[in-house]
Predict the structure.
Amino acid sequence: MSLTESFRVALTGLLTNRLRAILTTLGIIIGVGAVIGLSSLGRGVESFIASEFQALGSNVLFVFSSAPTSGTRTTIQPISTLEGEALGDPTVAPDIAQVAMETVVPGRVVNGGRSVTIVLSGVTPNFAVVRDWPVQTGVFFSDEDLDAAARVIVLGTTTVEKLFGDKAFDPTGLPVRVNDRVFTVIGVMQEQGGGIGALGDQNEVAFVPMTTAQTRLDNARTRDGGYRVDVLHIQTRGEESMDAATLQVESYLSDAHGVTFQGEQDFTIINQRDLLNSLGAVTGILTVFLSLIAGISLLVGGIGIMNIMLVSVTERTREIGLRKAVGARGSDILTQFLIESLVLSLVGGALGVALGWLITLIGGALVPDLDLAITTDAIALATGVSTFIGVFFGLYPASRAARMKPIDALRFE
Amino acid sequence: MVSLFKKKPAYQPPVDETGRKAVIDIRGVTKTYLMGDIEVNALRGVDLQIYQGEFVAIMGPSGSGKSTLMNVLGALDQPTTGEYFLDGVNVSKMTESDLARTRNQKIGFVFQSFNLLKRTPALRQVELPLIYGGAANRTKRAKAALESVGLGSRLDHLPSELSGGQQQRVAIARALVTEPAMILADEPTGNLDSRSGTEVMQIFQSLNRDKGITVVFVTHDPWIARHTNRVVILRDGRVVSDRMVSQPLIAGKDERPSEADEMESVLKDAYYGGKEEEYN
């Protein structure tokens, strides 16, 4: 019997049992749909998080105070402005291009009836350069503002929205009250991609000159005569000098803070790559986990096919006997049942791809920030897996049907 | 029909007194089954020749081996020992796939329970053996076969839309369509009421009489057996009686005896192994 005939016989067999065929396919549809949908969801989350961190810049180190992990030391000596300035000196740290400093203070910004409670960032003027984050309207602080501890403020777009009711509103030149002192808004930071991301809303920010934060809003003096700094944003000379710069920061700060052992360090140095790697591990696990769940449902779908095919073989014993009596060979019967299960799983696979696509569409509509797309390798995987399922789980029932003796099959009640 | 099988040069089918060749020639056939640990000798040495154009009924009580013989004759099963030549070809040594081809080309089966495919139109049912045989002109031939059993107007009917007698006629068309060497029917009227049974018998008789098709019946109904030309009776795996029917009944003309008459004849033991004239 030719292959086209086998196909016709198998398709006729499926069409005469439509409901059963549909129910069997459902397992594969859900399985493949889950694999595609969930893996694309996992990847979307992964790349979303990656893009969030990409925004931090690939040649930027972050240094902040942290509790020592071991040793007898329990006190934390804050990083001071003097240390920050020293690190900016090429003779101290030749791989560092410039250092931006940030001192945070709790704040409450009020505009008429509206107010927002926020962490105020007191930063040096080069912050915008180091973080590659310009203003969209107005200006950022100048060195004069820093020297004068000027009462000026630069807002993020979310803060603007909360204070002025509209994200697109330009508040430049308007006064706001910051911790009961009148400040002038001089600029609005460019909106950062993301929104509600892993790092919180990066647009819900307010920047003041560092000196203003340190002297007017807080009394943040340190023992060495400088002021407390919470985060050093260090721009290195390039991506390749990251490691060297890290070592220079480490050795300088260890010296300054009297650290003798590694575990005694009361500061932490991180960079975007480390963050990405550690978060990548987490999101990778997430993707694997999602795929695993999806894979299990695919397996269940496959077993469903085998189950139905076995039932079908038993139920159609007399049909098999009749077919053999009128001249079907074992191989004809094998082909027929294999094609049946293959068609079921391939149709299931195709509809599953559609379902996965639907899941991604819905997921994308619910969370617009996730860039969800069905990748070709997901489709290839689904097709491959469903073909495999069709053959693998169809083979046993089909060979059982093929081996049936015609007389036994015909006599079967 | 072109024979696809190599013929043993030594074998020449036996010929009867009128010059007809043997379609079925079985010699010393035995069949032993294993039922669990117990050996069952279903056939204990059967010799039987059935010639072209014959209409033979194989009878016997349950356990006589008639179903086993039917399976061997239909190439559904291989004899344990002995030889079976079907249409000049030794079937007893064939492989599974050659057996399948033999069944496809030389034998037309008609079963008691019709064995039609579910939800499949009549025309497709009849095409089935042609599909497995890889034949051309399938639709045309299937149509012709259905017309020859009087179902030319029921080509697209599903089994569920046909009466029992009509379903059996579809099955007969399916058996006929490959122009086999013989038609093998297992209790073909067993599931039918007497009117449909008569219809079916009429078809078999006309196929045998007008087209010269060899028909072998397995039945335990003496009334049905009397419509054939020859009755072979099996008991305990052996042929115990093999006689010609001198005046076969003609389906549709002869009335089945009333229940009372039938009871009478059962009590008189008129059927099994009785004298020839008692069949008339």
